Amino acid sequence: MKAAAKLGLEQFLTYRMHVLNKLSDRGISERYHAKLDITLPEARVIAAVGSFGPFSIMDLGRRANLDKSQASRAAEALIQRGLVRREASSEDGRVVLVSLTSEGRALYRKVMPIARKWNADLFACLDEAEKASLGRMLDKVIANALAGRE
Description:
Layout: H1 13-36, H2 40-52, E1 55-56, H3 57-64, H4 68-80, E2 84-88, E3 96-100, H5 102-122, H6 128-148
Helix pairs in contact: 1-5, 2-3, 2-5, 3-4
């Protein structure tokens, strides 16, 4: 029997990535809640809009790695708190964009250091060469997965 046929579930890349994703989301979510009293989806919206925005809700979902309903709910909660605002697109009046208010930009400046620290802590078990190698490998696997969707 081939070695690949003997792989258990815990050896599949997708399973392992899912486990890592859940552990990572839980860890960063706890930090955002404790330090800023925001949810992970809200933090992702703030980070995405602050880094790349303004966006439509659909684009926001893609950039924040949230489904459209999660992005919409998080944006709405942030709008209610005065951290994000809605405005019509100057290019297409039918499209509504979300952008950060001045309070939202201040929150963005708090969200990003927490994200950077969590990322550094998560990868602290790797040396610099391992981090670089893992980054290259993930880029290749992501490119391969994207190519398979075309």
